[in-house]
Amino acid sequence: MPRLSPDGKYLAVAVEQGEDHAVVVYRLDDMSHPKSMLRLPWQQLPYDIQWTGPERLVVELAKFWGSLDRPERLGEIIATDSGGKRILPMFNREWVDGRGGRVRTADDGYATIASLPSKANGHFYMQTYMWDDEKNTWLYDVNADNGVRHQIGQINAGDMDFTMDPDGNVRYAQGLDLFDKYVVYRMQNGQWVKLPNDERFEPIAFSQDKQHLYARTSVKGGPLSLVQTNADGTQSQLLAKDDFGNVGYVQWTPQNEPIAAAPVTGTPTSVIINGNQPLAQIYQMLRDKFPNQFVTFSSFSEDGTMLIFGVSSDRDPGSYYLFDMKAKKIAGLFSEDASIDPDKMGTRVPMHFTASDGTPLEAILTVPKGASMNNLPMVLLPHGGPFGISDTWFFDTDAQFLASRGYLVLQVNYRGSGGRGPGFVDAGYGKWGTRIQQDLIDGVKWAEAQHYGDPKRVCVFGASFGGYSAMMTVIRAPGMFKCAIGEAGIYDLAMMYDKGDIKERTAGRNYLEQAIGKDPSELAANSPDKLADKIDVPVLLIHGEADERAPFAQAKAMRAALEAAHKPYEWLTKPKEGHGFYKEENLVDMYNHVQSFLEKNIGPGVQAN
Question: pLDDT tens digit string along 424-450?
Fold first, then answer.
């Protein structure tokens, strides 16, 4: 998250140091030594960093429970000076004793950074909801210097995101309601009006003149397109679309004008939206300068003369550069992970295939460096989620690990995955153990029919929902796989109603009813621990004993079922680890176990030529 200060003098960035995280501020004229470093408590990291003025920034905090989790917002925000002084809570769940005897009671709720004023003025916009009220969301204008907040918006709907115009007026609110359904509201004559939900409409940002709104829309549940509308959402003008996947990866000017966008499926290739815009021409120039990589605008100085941009690819987690547009000079800043050598990584190849019911699906194959894609030992790697999550062309740690060991990696964006529009996501609800698993199995059959993978040397390795799929694909397709690895998996669907953090909120319980249903016989018929007698391959179970998303009880239930069915299995757990392992030594141990297990069951991978 490299962020330029408004005057372009400082750069704030999130840094990982072993198992610890920090916000580091550099002077751009001296990147050799940090100006300040704000160290965060263990397992905490920045979710968002924003400058509110030339010397002041706010940090939204998150918790990182394990390698499988995306950082989970803590709902707390702090502010600090560029020099790391005057650290004040903007929203926190502890009693606050401020300067000069000011006292503020604890915030018994959750807050996120909503947006910033169009010109830095020391303030930011913050949206909140409270733990004891799931039916309201509030919006505040907050002074980052002292934490004083003034309410500027409120809606009788929980956990909404607000869209504001450049003057700070609240215009739209959108999000998932308590029944896990997307809803959007427009402010009209001082009242919130709920818009029809027959077609998806996702407000993004207003133009600087407030006359136009940029949004994403879907027709009949299809892929999301980028459009420009009037401020009230009428008279839509298409800016970018793709027939297969959603349009995303939008690049913006400092004035919130989109200049380029790309489909999120396949190998992303940006379409220039307004070729006459000077920044669009700069973007095209940068694309030409960094071939075979994807360019992303990350941060601008307020006058628009200094730009931070990133480049990344399937083989490179990414690097960041500073472009001084006055001097017309580009300077390298840092890499996401300097330990990764892109020249040693595998190539990721997005492809399409047709499922057994005729539905077109996307597969991504990661090919070991130097290997010909012909009858390779193969690992099916189902992603987690399952809903709204997708595998993309960009760098994937698990896929590259397996490819570096000589295995072809197959990832399938099955029904329920993101990237294909809301209808494609909805098509996976209620089909955890059936159609989703068949999509994965169809992907393996396709890869074998194309002679990419050797049918005699196929294993499945998945984490979270992917761990569930690792067991279910083996059950649904006997004889197809030689082994199965489940990491932090769900193995007993009924248990999700009793254990784990999903059930703790009303929206979570409603989500479970839609995702897996409530019928006991259906839950049992789609639970691996109830079908262990059908597993015909060796199993490796990996789990963190402190996992709250997929509780350790899930792994113990699967182990007990395998033992009762007299099935071979191996077992790797770690205390104090959550949803995926957090500590480096535990991750290394896990990957070594995975490599050894694969070699034992499908042989060693191919050697690079």
Answer: 999 999 999 999 999 999 999 999 999
